[in-house]
Amino acid sequence: MEKTWDALKETLRSKLSESSYRVWIEPISYKGADGDTLILGCPNRFFASWVQERYLSALKDDLIFNGRRLSVRLMYEKNEAETVAGGQMYLPNFCPDEVQRPRFSERFTFDEFVVGESNQYAFNACWRVAHEEMNCKIVYLHARTGLGKSHLAQAVGQTFLERRPRARLCYVSANEFTTQIVRAIKDGHMDALKRKYDVCDALLLEEVHSLAGRERTQVELVSAIDAMADCGKMLILTGNQPPGQIARLSEQLSSRVASGLVISINPPDKPTRRKILARKAKKQGLDLTDDVLDFLAGRLVGDIRRIEGAVIGLVARASFIRHPVDLDMAREVVENLAAEPVEIDIRVIRELVCRHYKVTQEDLRSKLRKRAVSWPRQLAMYLSRKFTDYPLEVIGREFNRDHATVLHSVKHITRSMSESAKLKSEVDYLVGQMEKLRWQG
Protein backbone atom coordinates (compact mmCIF):
# COMPACT_ATOMS: atom_id res chain seq x y z
CA MET A 1 0.00 0.00 0.00
CA GLU A 2 2.93 2.34 0.54
CA LYS A 3 3.74 2.02 -3.16
CA THR A 4 0.12 2.90 -3.88
CA TRP A 5 0.51 6.15 -1.95
CA ASP A 6 3.77 6.88 -3.78
CA ALA A 7 1.90 6.48 -7.07
CA LEU A 8 -0.91 8.73 -5.88
CA LYS A 9 1.62 11.38 -4.87
CA GLU A 10 3.01 11.34 -8.39
CA THR A 11 -0.52 11.74 -9.72
CA LEU A 12 -0.98 14.79 -7.53
CA ARG A 13 2.39 16.15 -8.63
CA SER A 14 1.19 16.08 -12.24
CA LYS A 15 -2.03 17.90 -11.32
CA LEU A 16 -0.61 20.60 -9.02
CA SER A 17 1.95 23.36 -9.33
CA GLU A 18 5.38 22.49 -8.01
CA SER A 19 5.06 24.98 -5.15
CA SER A 20 1.67 23.58 -4.06
CA TYR A 21 2.99 20.03 -4.20
CA ARG A 22 6.10 20.93 -2.19
CA VAL A 23 4.17 22.77 0.53
CA TRP A 24 1.10 20.52 0.88
CA ILE A 25 1.79 17.03 -0.42
CA GLU A 26 5.47 16.35 0.13
CA PRO A 27 5.22 16.64 3.97
CA ILE A 28 2.52 13.92 4.12
CA SER A 29 3.93 10.60 5.31
CA TYR A 30 2.65 7.05 4.86
CA LYS A 31 1.63 5.52 8.22
CA GLY A 32 0.10 2.24 7.20
CA ALA A 33 -3.13 0.70 5.95
CA ASP A 34 -6.33 -0.66 7.45
CA GLY A 35 -8.04 -2.82 4.88
CA ASP A 36 -8.89 -0.54 1.95
CA THR A 37 -7.98 2.59 3.92
CA LEU A 38 -4.70 4.42 3.47
CA ILE A 39 -3.48 5.98 6.73
CA LEU A 40 -1.42 9.14 6.17
CA GLY A 41 0.33 11.46 8.62
CA CYS A 42 0.06 15.26 8.58
CA PRO A 43 1.93 17.84 10.72
CA ASN A 44 -1.22 19.22 12.39
CA ARG A 45 -5.00 19.44 12.30
CA PHE A 46 -5.23 22.53 10.08
CA PHE A 47 -2.76 21.06 7.60
CA ALA A 48 -4.91 17.92 7.29
CA SER A 49 -8.11 19.94 6.95
CA TRP A 50 -6.59 22.02 4.17
CA VAL A 51 -5.32 18.94 2.29
CA GLN A 52 -8.72 17.30 2.65
CA GLU A 53 -10.62 20.28 1.28
CA ARG A 54 -8.23 21.35 -1.48
CA TYR A 55 -6.28 18.36 -2.74
CA LEU A 56 -7.73 14.93 -1.97
CA SER A 57 -10.71 15.60 -4.24
CA ALA A 58 -8.22 15.68 -7.15
CA LEU A 59 -7.64 11.95 -6.52
CA LYS A 60 -11.27 10.84 -6.53
CA ASP A 61 -10.90 9.04 -9.88
CA ASP A 62 -7.53 7.51 -8.99
CA LEU A 63 -8.36 5.84 -5.66
CA ILE A 64 -8.74 2.41 -7.22
CA PHE A 65 -6.44 -0.48 -6.30
CA ASN A 66 -6.94 -4.02 -7.66
CA GLY A 67 -10.51 -3.10 -8.55
CA ARG A 68 -11.30 -1.80 -5.04
CA ARG A 69 -12.08 1.81 -4.14
CA LEU A 70 -9.79 3.12 -1.44
CA SER A 71 -10.43 5.71 1.23
CA VAL A 72 -7.96 7.96 3.01
CA ARG A 73 -7.57 8.60 6.73
CA LEU A 74 -5.50 11.59 7.78
CA MET A 75 -3.68 11.30 11.11
CA TYR A 76 -2.49 14.31 13.06
CA GLU A 77 0.62 14.48 15.21
CA LYS A 78 -1.44 13.88 18.35
CA ASN A 79 -3.01 10.72 16.93
CA GLU A 80 -6.24 12.47 16.01
CA ALA A 81 -7.89 11.17 12.87
CA GLU A 82 -10.27 12.26 10.19
CA THR A 83 -11.62 10.10 7.40
CA VAL A 84 -12.24 11.33 3.89
CA ALA A 85 -14.74 8.92 2.40
CA GLY A 86 -13.33 7.74 -0.89
CA GLY A 87 -11.09 10.80 -0.92
CA GLN A 88 -13.82 13.01 -2.34
CA MET A 89 -15.82 16.07 -1.34
CA TYR A 90 -19.33 16.85 -2.58
CA LEU A 91 -22.08 19.40 -2.48
CA PRO A 92 -25.34 17.98 -1.08
CA ASN A 93 -28.23 17.42 -3.44
CA PHE A 94 -31.61 18.97 -3.06
CA CYS A 95 -33.10 17.73 0.17
CA PRO A 96 -35.86 15.12 -0.01
CA ASP A 97 -39.10 15.31 1.90
CA GLU A 98 -37.41 14.64 5.22
CA VAL A 99 -35.32 17.37 6.86
CA GLN A 100 -31.67 17.08 5.84
CA ARG A 101 -28.70 19.25 6.70
CA PRO A 102 -26.21 20.35 4.04
CA ARG A 103 -22.54 19.77 4.80
CA PHE A 104 -21.23 23.26 5.42
CA SER A 105 -17.64 24.10 6.28
CA GLU A 106 -17.23 24.73 9.99
CA ARG A 107 -14.97 27.69 9.14
CA PHE A 108 -17.55 29.46 6.99
CA THR A 109 -19.47 31.36 9.68
CA PHE A 110 -20.09 35.05 10.27
CA ASP A 111 -17.81 34.95 13.33
CA GLU A 112 -14.92 33.67 11.21
CA PHE A 113 -15.39 36.22 8.43
CA VAL A 114 -12.91 39.11 8.67
CA VAL A 115 -14.69 42.35 7.79
CA GLY A 116 -12.95 45.22 6.02
CA GLU A 117 -13.78 48.09 3.73
CA SER A 118 -13.87 45.81 0.66
CA ASN A 119 -16.53 43.45 2.03
CA GLN A 120 -18.36 45.30 4.81
CA TYR A 121 -21.49 45.97 2.76
CA ALA A 122 -21.69 42.32 1.64
CA PHE A 123 -21.20 41.10 5.21
CA ASN A 124 -23.84 43.43 6.68
CA ALA A 125 -26.40 42.58 4.01
CA CYS A 126 -25.90 38.82 4.35
CA TRP A 127 -26.06 39.02 8.15
CA ARG A 128 -29.37 40.89 8.00
CA VAL A 129 -30.82 38.47 5.43
CA ALA A 130 -29.78 35.47 7.53
CA HIS A 131 -31.46 37.01 10.58
CA GLU A 132 -34.51 37.88 8.48
CA GLU A 133 -34.13 41.60 9.10
CA MET A 134 -34.52 42.56 5.42
CA ASN A 135 -37.53 42.33 3.14
CA CYS A 136 -35.26 41.40 0.23
CA LYS A 137 -35.17 37.62 -0.13
CA ILE A 138 -32.90 37.32 -3.19
CA VAL A 139 -29.19 38.07 -2.82
CA TYR A 140 -26.57 37.66 -5.54
CA LEU A 141 -22.91 37.82 -4.45
CA HIS A 142 -20.30 38.23 -7.14
CA ALA A 143 -16.53 38.29 -6.84
CA ARG A 144 -13.39 36.71 -8.20
CA THR A 145 -12.37 33.33 -6.80
CA GLY A 146 -11.12 33.33 -3.22
CA LEU A 147 -12.69 36.58 -1.96
CA GLY A 148 -15.30 35.10 0.36
CA LYS A 149 -18.58 34.75 -1.53
CA SER A 150 -18.91 31.04 -0.66
CA HIS A 151 -17.96 31.85 2.94
CA LEU A 152 -20.80 34.38 3.22
CA ALA A 153 -23.29 32.13 1.41
CA GLN A 154 -22.60 29.27 3.82
CA ALA A 155 -22.67 31.65 6.79
CA VAL A 156 -26.17 32.69 5.75
CA GLY A 157 -27.20 29.06 5.46
CA GLN A 158 -25.80 28.04 8.83
CA THR A 159 -27.36 31.00 10.63
CA PHE A 160 -30.69 30.41 8.90
CA LEU A 161 -30.74 26.79 10.12
CA GLU A 162 -29.70 27.78 13.65
CA ARG A 163 -32.66 30.13 13.81
CA ARG A 164 -35.05 27.69 12.09
CA PRO A 165 -33.89 24.15 12.94
CA ARG A 166 -36.79 22.48 11.11
CA ALA A 167 -36.31 24.46 7.89
CA ARG A 168 -35.39 22.74 4.64
CA LEU A 169 -32.38 24.36 3.01
CA CYS A 170 -31.01 23.30 -0.37
CA TYR A 171 -27.33 23.96 -1.14
CA VAL A 172 -25.99 23.08 -4.61
CA SER A 173 -23.50 24.24 -7.20
CA ALA A 174 -24.70 25.24 -10.65
CA ASN A 175 -22.98 22.18 -12.13
CA GLU A 176 -24.72 19.88 -9.65
CA PHE A 177 -28.02 21.62 -10.42
CA THR A 178 -27.48 20.98 -14.13
CA THR A 179 -26.64 17.32 -13.49
CA GLN A 180 -29.89 16.89 -11.57
CA ILE A 181 -31.88 18.45 -14.41
CA VAL A 182 -30.25 16.23 -17.03
CA ARG A 183 -30.76 13.11 -14.92
CA ALA A 184 -34.40 14.00 -14.19
CA ILE A 185 -35.14 14.55 -17.89
CA LYS A 186 -33.46 11.29 -18.84
CA ASP A 187 -35.33 9.31 -16.17
CA GLY A 188 -38.64 11.12 -16.65
CA HIS A 189 -38.63 12.47 -13.09
CA MET A 190 -38.90 16.22 -13.67
CA ASP A 191 -42.13 16.48 -11.68
CA ALA A 192 -40.47 14.81 -8.69
CA LEU A 193 -37.49 17.15 -8.93
CA LYS A 194 -39.76 20.19 -9.06
CA ARG A 195 -41.57 18.98 -5.95
CA LYS A 196 -38.24 19.02 -4.15
CA TYR A 197 -38.00 22.73 -4.93
CA ASP A 198 -41.43 23.25 -3.45
CA VAL A 199 -40.44 21.85 -0.03
CA CYS A 200 -37.29 23.98 0.24
CA ASP A 201 -37.51 27.00 2.52
CA ALA A 202 -34.23 28.42 1.21
CA LEU A 203 -31.95 27.84 -1.78
CA LEU A 204 -28.19 28.49 -1.88
CA LEU A 205 -26.87 28.10 -5.42
CA GLU A 206 -23.19 28.65 -6.20
CA GLU A 207 -21.38 29.52 -9.46
CA VAL A 208 -24.28 30.91 -11.50
CA HIS A 209 -21.80 31.80 -14.26
CA SER A 210 -21.43 28.04 -14.93
CA LEU A 211 -24.99 28.05 -16.30
CA ALA A 212 -23.99 30.14 -19.34
CA GLY A 213 -25.39 28.53 -22.48
CA ARG A 214 -27.33 25.83 -20.60
CA GLU A 215 -30.75 26.90 -21.79
CA ARG A 216 -32.92 24.16 -20.26
CA THR A 217 -31.22 24.45 -16.88
CA GLN A 218 -31.77 28.22 -16.93
CA VAL A 219 -35.46 27.76 -17.70
CA GLU A 220 -35.89 25.40 -14.76
CA LEU A 221 -33.95 27.72 -12.43
CA VAL A 222 -36.15 30.65 -13.44
CA SER A 223 -39.19 28.52 -12.63
CA ALA A 224 -37.75 27.57 -9.23
CA ILE A 225 -36.84 31.18 -8.41
CA ASP A 226 -40.32 32.41 -9.33
CA ALA A 227 -42.00 29.74 -7.19
CA MET A 228 -39.80 30.39 -4.17
CA ALA A 229 -39.92 34.18 -4.49
CA ASP A 230 -43.73 34.13 -4.66
CA CYS A 231 -43.72 32.31 -1.30
CA GLY A 232 -41.24 34.73 0.27
CA LYS A 233 -38.49 32.11 0.51
CA MET A 234 -34.80 32.98 0.67
CA LEU A 235 -32.44 32.62 -2.30
CA ILE A 236 -28.68 33.21 -2.08
CA LEU A 237 -26.76 32.96 -5.35
CA THR A 238 -23.08 33.48 -6.17
CA GLY A 239 -21.10 34.04 -9.35
CA ASN A 240 -17.87 35.53 -10.64
CA GLN A 241 -19.53 38.43 -12.50
CA PRO A 242 -22.60 40.65 -12.23
CA PRO A 243 -25.60 38.89 -13.85
CA GLY A 244 -25.71 41.34 -16.75
CA GLN A 245 -22.12 40.58 -17.69
CA ILE A 246 -22.37 36.78 -17.85
CA ALA A 247 -22.30 35.82 -21.50
CA ARG A 248 -25.07 33.51 -22.74
CA LEU A 249 -27.16 33.95 -19.61
CA SER A 250 -30.79 34.33 -20.58
CA GLU A 251 -32.48 37.67 -20.11
CA GLN A 252 -35.13 35.97 -17.98
CA LEU A 253 -32.62 34.51 -15.52
CA SER A 254 -30.47 37.63 -15.49
CA SER A 255 -33.49 39.81 -14.67
CA ARG A 256 -34.63 37.44 -11.88
CA VAL A 257 -31.20 37.50 -10.26
CA ALA A 258 -30.86 41.25 -10.69
CA SER A 259 -34.29 41.84 -9.12
CA GLY A 260 -32.79 41.20 -5.70
CA LEU A 261 -29.74 42.59 -3.96
CA VAL A 262 -26.66 42.39 -6.21
CA ILE A 263 -23.48 42.79 -4.17
CA SER A 264 -19.82 42.76 -5.21
CA ILE A 265 -16.90 41.73 -2.99
CA ASN A 266 -13.59 43.37 -3.81
CA PRO A 267 -10.06 42.14 -2.99
CA PRO A 268 -9.08 43.02 0.60
CA ASP A 269 -6.97 46.11 1.15
CA LYS A 270 -3.77 45.98 3.20
CA PRO A 271 -5.39 46.70 6.63
CA THR A 272 -7.94 43.93 5.99
CA ARG A 273 -5.24 41.51 4.85
CA ARG A 274 -3.37 42.24 8.07
CA LYS A 275 -6.49 41.46 10.12
CA ILE A 276 -7.03 38.22 8.22
CA LEU A 277 -3.42 37.17 8.79
CA ALA A 278 -3.56 37.96 12.49
CA ARG A 279 -6.85 36.08 12.93
CA LYS A 280 -5.74 32.95 11.08
CA ALA A 281 -2.31 32.89 12.70
CA LYS A 282 -3.83 33.18 16.18
CA LYS A 283 -6.13 30.23 15.50
CA GLN A 284 -3.07 28.17 14.67
CA GLY A 285 -1.19 29.25 17.78
CA LEU A 286 1.25 31.46 15.87
CA ASP A 287 2.41 34.68 17.46
CA LEU A 288 3.38 36.88 14.53
CA THR A 289 5.33 40.06 15.21
CA ASP A 290 4.22 43.38 13.76
CA ASP A 291 7.04 43.41 11.19
CA VAL A 292 6.09 39.92 9.95
CA LEU A 293 2.41 40.88 9.74
CA ASP A 294 3.25 44.08 7.85
CA PHE A 295 5.53 42.21 5.45
CA LEU A 296 2.96 39.51 4.68
CA ALA A 297 0.07 41.97 4.37
CA GLY A 298 2.11 43.97 1.88
CA ARG A 299 3.11 40.98 -0.24
CA LEU A 300 0.04 38.71 -0.22
CA VAL A 301 -2.20 40.69 -2.54
CA GLY A 302 -5.15 39.18 -4.37
CA ASP A 303 -7.42 36.48 -3.00
CA ILE A 304 -7.66 35.22 0.57
CA ARG A 305 -6.49 31.72 -0.35
CA ARG A 306 -2.94 33.01 -0.79
CA ILE A 307 -3.12 34.36 2.74
CA GLU A 308 -4.40 31.05 4.08
CA GLY A 309 -1.70 29.22 2.17
CA ALA A 310 1.00 31.43 3.67
CA VAL A 311 -0.27 30.91 7.22
CA ILE A 312 -0.41 27.14 6.92
CA GLY A 313 3.01 27.22 5.27
CA LEU A 314 4.37 29.09 8.29
CA VAL A 315 2.68 26.62 10.63
CA ALA A 316 4.24 23.69 8.81
CA ARG A 317 7.73 25.20 8.57
CA ALA A 318 7.79 26.42 12.18
CA SER A 319 6.75 22.97 13.41
CA PHE A 320 9.28 21.20 11.19
CA ILE A 321 12.34 23.22 12.23
CA ARG A 322 11.13 24.03 15.76
CA HIS A 323 11.80 27.73 15.33
CA PRO A 324 9.54 30.77 15.86
CA VAL A 325 8.38 32.64 12.79
CA ASP A 326 10.63 35.52 11.76
CA LEU A 327 11.01 37.71 8.66
CA ASP A 328 13.40 35.30 6.94
CA MET A 329 10.95 32.43 7.35
CA ALA A 330 8.09 34.62 6.12
CA ARG A 331 10.06 35.58 3.01
CA GLU A 332 10.89 31.96 2.26
CA VAL A 333 7.29 30.81 2.63
CA VAL A 334 5.99 33.61 0.38
CA GLU A 335 8.59 32.80 -2.29
CA ASN A 336 7.67 29.10 -2.21
CA LEU A 337 3.96 29.82 -2.21
CA ALA A 338 3.89 31.84 -5.41
CA ALA A 339 5.62 34.64 -7.17
CA GLU A 340 4.58 38.17 -6.25
CA PRO A 341 2.15 39.43 -8.90
CA VAL A 342 2.87 42.72 -10.62
CA GLU A 343 -0.03 45.15 -10.58
CA ILE A 344 -1.37 45.57 -14.11
CA ASP A 345 -2.86 48.87 -15.21
CA ILE A 346 -4.74 49.84 -18.36
CA ARG A 347 -1.67 51.54 -19.88
CA VAL A 348 0.23 48.24 -19.86
CA ILE A 349 -2.74 46.48 -21.51
CA ARG A 350 -3.02 49.13 -24.24
CA GLU A 351 0.70 48.86 -25.01
CA LEU A 352 0.52 45.06 -25.34
CA VAL A 353 -2.52 45.20 -27.64
CA CYS A 354 -0.98 47.94 -29.76
CA ARG A 355 2.24 45.95 -30.25
CA HIS A 356 0.36 42.77 -31.14
CA TYR A 357 -2.07 44.33 -33.63
CA LYS A 358 0.23 47.10 -34.87
CA VAL A 359 -2.18 49.91 -34.02
CA THR A 360 -1.54 53.12 -32.09
CA GLN A 361 -2.80 54.40 -28.77
CA GLU A 362 -4.63 57.09 -30.72
CA ASP A 363 -6.36 54.42 -32.81
CA LEU A 364 -7.76 52.79 -29.67
CA ARG A 365 -9.20 56.12 -28.50
CA SER A 366 -10.44 57.16 -31.93
CA LYS A 367 -13.90 56.88 -33.52
CA LEU A 368 -12.62 54.48 -36.19
CA ARG A 369 -14.94 51.49 -36.53
CA LYS A 370 -13.11 49.31 -39.05
CA ARG A 371 -12.40 45.86 -37.63
CA ALA A 372 -8.63 46.31 -37.72
CA VAL A 373 -9.12 48.90 -34.95
CA SER A 374 -12.44 47.97 -33.30
CA TRP A 375 -11.39 44.39 -32.49
CA PRO A 376 -8.13 45.41 -30.72
CA ARG A 377 -10.06 48.16 -28.90
CA GLN A 378 -12.72 45.73 -27.68
CA LEU A 379 -10.09 43.19 -26.69
CA ALA A 380 -8.14 45.83 -24.76
CA MET A 381 -11.32 46.72 -22.84
CA TYR A 382 -11.97 43.00 -22.20
CA LEU A 383 -8.45 42.54 -20.81
CA SER A 384 -8.79 45.70 -18.72
CA ARG A 385 -11.92 44.26 -17.15
CA LYS A 386 -10.24 40.89 -16.58
CA PHE A 387 -6.90 42.06 -15.16
CA THR A 388 -7.78 45.22 -13.25
CA ASP A 389 -10.26 46.22 -10.57
CA TYR A 390 -11.23 49.47 -12.31
CA PRO A 391 -14.98 50.10 -12.72
CA LEU A 392 -16.52 50.18 -16.19
CA GLU A 393 -16.67 53.98 -16.22
CA VAL A 394 -12.92 54.32 -15.62
CA ILE A 395 -12.08 51.75 -18.30
CA GLY A 396 -14.39 53.55 -20.71
CA ARG A 397 -12.67 56.89 -20.17
CA GLU A 398 -9.30 55.32 -21.05
CA PHE A 399 -10.69 54.45 -24.49
CA ASN A 400 -12.86 57.53 -24.97
CA ARG A 401 -16.00 55.41 -24.49
CA ASP A 402 -18.82 55.06 -21.96
CA HIS A 403 -19.41 52.17 -19.55
CA ALA A 404 -22.11 50.63 -21.78
CA THR A 405 -19.60 50.29 -24.62
CA VAL A 406 -17.14 48.54 -22.27
CA LEU A 407 -19.83 46.11 -21.16
CA HIS A 408 -20.79 45.44 -24.78
CA SER A 409 -17.12 44.80 -25.64
CA VAL A 410 -16.70 42.31 -22.80
CA LYS A 411 -19.80 40.40 -23.90
CA HIS A 412 -18.75 40.50 -27.57
CA ILE A 413 -15.29 39.09 -26.87
CA THR A 414 -16.71 36.39 -24.59
CA ARG A 415 -19.30 35.40 -27.20
CA SER A 416 -16.72 35.42 -30.01
CA MET A 417 -14.49 33.07 -28.00
CA SER A 418 -17.34 30.58 -27.58
CA GLU A 419 -18.20 30.67 -31.30
CA SER A 420 -14.74 30.59 -32.90
CA ALA A 421 -11.81 28.40 -31.88
CA LYS A 422 -9.48 30.67 -33.85
CA LEU A 423 -10.59 33.80 -32.00
CA LYS A 424 -10.45 31.95 -28.67
CA SER A 425 -6.87 30.93 -29.41
CA GLU A 426 -6.06 34.55 -30.27
CA VAL A 427 -7.54 35.86 -27.02
CA ASP A 428 -5.99 33.06 -24.96
CA TYR A 429 -2.56 33.96 -26.34
CA LEU A 430 -2.91 37.58 -25.17
CA VAL A 431 -4.31 36.45 -21.82
CA GLY A 432 -1.23 34.27 -21.48
CA GLN A 433 1.01 37.23 -22.27
CA MET A 434 -0.79 39.26 -19.62
CA GLU A 435 -0.29 36.47 -17.07
CA LYS A 436 3.45 36.46 -17.84
CA LEU A 437 3.59 40.22 -17.29
CA ARG A 438 1.59 39.83 -14.09
CA TRP A 439 3.85 37.22 -12.55
CA GLN A 440 7.24 38.02 -14.10
CA GLY A 441 7.04 41.78 -14.47
Question: How would you describe the overall organization of this protein?
Answer:
With 441 residues, this protein is of the alpha/beta class. The protein is 54% helix and 11% strand. It has 19 helices and eleven strands. The chain has helices spanning 2-15, 18-25, 45-54, 120-130, 149-163, 174-187, 190-199, 215-230, 251-258, 270-283, 290-299, 304-321, 327-337, 346-357, 361-365, 371-387, 392-398, 403-419, 421-440; strands at residues 29-34, 37-41, 64-65, 68-69, 71-75, 81-84, 138-142, 169-173, 202-206, 234-239, 261-264. The strands form three sheets. It has a five-stranded parallel β-sheet with strand order 8-9-10-7-11, sandwiched between helices. It has a four-stranded mixed β-sheet with strand order 1-2-5-6, covered by helices on one side. Strand 9, helix 8 (215-230) and strand 10 (234-239) form a beta-alpha-beta unit. Helix 10 (270-283) packs across helix 12 (304-321). It is globular, with a radius of gyration of 24 Å. The model is unreliable at 79-99 (pLDDT under 50).
Summarize the structure.
By secondary structure, this protein is an alpha/beta fold. Helices cover 54% and strands 11% of the residues. It starts with a helix and ends with a helix.
Number of helices: 19
Strand order of the largest sheet: 8-9-10-7-11
- Percentage of β-strand residues: 5-15%
Order of helices and strands: HHEEHEEEEHEHEHHEHEHEHHHHHHHHHH
The total strand number stands at 11
- Shape verdict: globular
Radius of gyration computed on alpha carbons: 24 Å
Poorly predicted runs: 79-99
Category from helices, strands and their pairing: alpha/beta
The major sheet is characterized as: 5 strands, parallel
> Separation of termini?
45 Å
Q: What average pLDDT do the residues reach?
A: 81
- Helical amount among residues, as a percent range? 40-55%
